[in-house]
Each structure stands twice: as C-alpha cells, then as structure tokens.
Specification:
Elements lengths: L4 E2 L8 E6 L2 E10 L2 E4 L3 H5 L4 E5 L12 E10 L13 E5 L26 E6 L14 E8 L1 H4 L13 E4 L14 E4 L2 E6 L13 E5 L4 H11 L2
Antiparallel strand pairs: 1-9, 2-3, 2-5, 3-4, 4-7, 5-6, 6-7, 8-9, 8-11, 9-10, 10-13, 11-12, 12-13
This protein binds ligand E85.
Ligand E85 binds next to loops.
Length: 232
C-alpha cells in the first residue's frame, strides 16, 4: 500500500495474508468461515510450495492472541485465469478448517448485485504489500482510501486504452495506490467488498496506470457453484 497509513490493530479482521514458507506473498479476505478470496496470479509467486493462510493478524511477525496460520484444503483458481492476462484473476481458497469468528477474525460481506460502483466513490484497500516504490515491506497492516474512476476514463488511451472490461474496475493511482503484495486483497466500498486487487500493469503510484480491481458481482455464480460442489 503506497502512501496509506498503518491500520489500527485488528480493525480489518477479514484480512488474510497468503504465505509460502512463512513469507507473505499476497492479500486475501475471509468471505465465509472456511473460505478466503484472493487472486489467481498469487499462485505464480507460490510455485508448488505449500501455501498457508494467516488470519487474525495485525503484525506479520509478533505473537497476537487470535493469530492463526491455517492450512489449505483446496485451491480453486478461476478456470479462465491465465498468466498471460489480467482477466478473471480470482482464487477461491478452501481452508483446512473453519475459522471461529472473534474480535480479530471476521467475515467481510461481498457485493452480489451487479451494479457498477459510481465514479468518485471513496473505497479502501488494505494489505501488507510494498509501502514504497523501492519495495519496502511492512510488518503491520496498512490501508489507503482510493477514489473510483469510471471504466470510460480508465479505457482512454492515456490509461488502459480499451482493455478494461465490465468485469474490472479502476481507482485513481496518483501517489496513493495498491502495490506488489497487495494482490488478492479486497476493495471495500461502504463496508462491502466490491473488488479484488488485480496485479494488472504492476506499476504502482503512477496516475497514468490506475489500480485495476476484479469486480466481484460477475463471479458470484462461480463462487456458488464451487460451494455447492464442496458441500454436496
Ligand atoms: N496498483 C497496482 C498493483 C496492484 C498489485 C500489485 C502491483 N504490482 C506488482 N505485482 N507483482 C509485481 N511484481 C513486481 N513488481 C511489481 N510492482 C512494482 C515493484 C516495484 C516498484 C513498482 O513501482 C512496482 C509487482 C501493482
């Protein structure tokens, strides 16, 4: 998170850290007591190493009462996600066990209605990703408030020149922005998860390359199909 602020401890109790060998690689968030939503591109950073999901954390290193490092039962990258492009960049993670909700571990509701978030809406994104362009990683969770820009503006030549589909959305990226390690985290507007941080152009903090987020509503049927199969 570039030019945001350290989050007051456990104030975003839905946030999870996707880890490989104890190292943070991506964000993610609890959407049910055994399910985390993140980004498919995060699996590229993981190779075939064992993934774990940290819940209830503020600091990545310090001992905290409700901090739990959980195993992964199954990974569901979106079938149309690809290393080649920015589309369908979603990963559903089934945890080895159900989390027990606490002050520090809570589920974040996600948007089911497929209506675009109006341009100018103030949303926020949190994560343990880069807090500087030189690649400084924080120990504690950070968050930043970002303003939504319309897909029309985001698709102009100076920005993404038509590559932003109706399954994506953009936020301003002038100075404040998400960055490496924030992928998979939620874009929260009015208390509801509307999007998931997509790696997209990889650039951070450059106003010409707005932050790209995978919109959640278009994928609700996919979530429900996975849940139906998992709970048959
Ligand atoms: N705001 C967009 C966004 C969201 C999520 C991830 C990302 N970036 C990245 N995702 N993966 C990456 N691998 C290498 N470098 C990366 N960005 C980078 C690194 C140093 C300086 C800088 O300005 C940008 C990224 C960018």
């Amino acid at each position: 998170i570039l030019r945001g602020q350290e989050t007051p401890a456990h104030q975003r109790p839905y946030m999870t850290s996707l880890q490989v060998s104890g190292k943070h690689i991506c964000g993610g968030f609890l959407i049910a007591d055994q399910w985390v939503l993140s980004a498919a591109h995060c699996l590229q950073d993981a190779g075939n190493a064992t993934l774990q999901v940290l819940v209830g954390a503020h600091s990545l290193s310090e001992a905290e009462p409700n901090k739990r490092l959980l195993g992964v039962r199954k990974l569901f990258p979106h079938p149309n996600s690809s290393v080649e492009n920015i589309y369908n960049d979603l990963l559903l993670i089934q945890l080895e066990e159900r989390v027990s909700p606490s002050a520090d571990v809570q589920i974040l509701p996600f948007q089911r209605e497929d209506r675009s978030v109006p341009a100018g809406t103030q949303c926020e994104v949190a994560g343990w990703g880069f807090i500087s362009n030189t690649g400084r990683l924080p120990d504690k969770l950070h968050h930043v408030e970002l303003s939504v820009i319309s897909n029309t503006v985001c698709n102009t030549r100076i920005h993404y020149d038509g590559s932003i589909t109706e399954k994506l959305m953009c936020t301003e990226s002038k100075r404040k922005d998400s960055c490496k390690g924030d992928s998979g985290g939620p874009l929260v507007c009015n208390g509801v998860a509307e999007g998931v941080v997509a790696t997209g152009a990889r650039v951070c903090g450059n106003w010409k390359k707005p932050g790209i987020y995978t919109r959640i509503p278009p994928y609700v049927d996919w979530f429900d199909s996975i849940w139906a199969a998992a709970h048959q």
